[in-house]
């Protein structure tokens, strides 16, 4: 249990934080979705695979071109799923928080 003085100081710190960084406070309350960065590695992988599919199609290897096209589409779908708005951010680790 906090004393009256500690409660007063905590309330003062909360007011100061709300005044200085309202976006942080909104994220802590869960009001604002966190911005997720687009993973550039997935974008590059999708571009490389689609370029390979086009090259294979021009060379006449239709089966390989179709397979590469499907994999390029899978990569882009994974990118779209990962970066869609309204989805909670997975955070830096793979495991959920320990609480």
TrEMBL record:
The chain crosses the membrane at residues 38-56, 62-81. Keywords: Membrane, Transmembrane, Transmembrane helix. It comes from the Bacteria. This is DUF3040 domain-containing protein. It comes from Actinoplanes friuliensis DSM 7358. The lineage of its organism: Bacteria, Bacillati, Actinomycetota, Actinomycetes, Micromonosporales.
């Amino acid at each position: 249990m906090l004393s009256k003085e500690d409660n007063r100081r905590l309330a003062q710190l909360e007011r100061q934080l709300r005044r200085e960084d309202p976006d942080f406070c909104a994220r802590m309350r869960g009001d604002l979705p966190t911005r997720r960065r687009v993973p550039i590695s997935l974008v590059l992988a999708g571009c490389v695979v689609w370029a390979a599919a086009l090259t294979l199609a021009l060379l006449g290897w239709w089966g390989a071109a179709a397979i590469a096209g499907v994999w390029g589409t899978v990569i882009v779908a994974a990118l779209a799923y990962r970066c869609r708005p309204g989805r909670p951010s997975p955070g830096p680790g793979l495991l959920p928080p320990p609480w």
